[in-house]
Design brief:
- This protein is α+β, with helices and mostly antiparallel strands.
- The chain is built from 2 helices and 8 strands, in the order E-E-E-H-E-E-E-E-E-H.
- The longest helix is centred in the C-terminal third of the chain and has 18 residues.
Length: 138
């Protein structure tokens, strides 16, 4: 792949991924490995760890936007629109939240068991803050 303008390059040839087998991080944490099958052949793609988050956003259908969020350690975090979410349990009975992005892509997170009560409280606080945003205190 070149750094030149894509309009100047030959047409892109794409191969259909027949199966997605999963992902795993390398032992050193520097790459995310994605196992797929293309043309009946199993392949593994290695992405630098710092490119994994943009890859997840592209699967959800957006590259995200970087804007300020409340906590300084999260400033510049890409934010993406969520069209819906689901809460459930995984096979081990642990809580899972799944978010659906604009193009129907999904991303799920396993939550620590103690996070549920904190999540409820945090959401109530956020709702209060959102309701008072832009209002002047008397």
């Amino acid at each position: 792949m070149s750094d030149s303008d894509p309009a100047d390059d030959d047409p892109i040839e794409a191969e259909t991924v027949e199966a997605f087998h999963g992902t795993v991080a390398t032992d050193d944490g520097h790459h995310v490995l994605i196992s797929i099958t293309v043309d009946g052949e199993d392949r593994v793609l290695a992405f630098p760890a710092d490119e994994a988050l943009p890859l997840a956003f592209s699967v959800l259908g957006t590259e995200g936007t970087c804007r300020s969020v409340a906590h300084p350690e999260n400033r510049g975090t890409p934010l993406i629109p969520v069209h819906s979410y689901q809460l459930g349990l995984d096979a081990d009975g642990e809580p899972v939240v799944t978010f659906e992005g604009p193009n129907g892509g999904h991303i799920s997170f396993v939550l620590p068991l103690d996070a549920l009560s904190r999540l409820i409280g945090d959401l109530a606080t956020l709702r209060t803050l959102a309701g008072t945003e832009g209002q002047t205190k008397q």
